[in-house]
Amino acid sequence: MSYTYKGMVYSIKSPVTSISVNKHNVVVTDQDGSKLIKFTNVNDSKCFLAWVYKA
């Protein structure tokens, strides 16, 4: 699965083993390791989390 935010493409592979959230920052750990995604507002991070949970 890939997610595009502000021109950057983030590739996330199932299974996701952990998700950490701190205001605008989300760290997703999957098969390939940890990925830090920095969002500019809380709504963008919430939309991303909703997308991850659906997938």
From TrEMBL:
Source species, domain of life: Bacteria
Official protein name in the record: Uncharacterized protein
Species of the source: Colwellia maritima
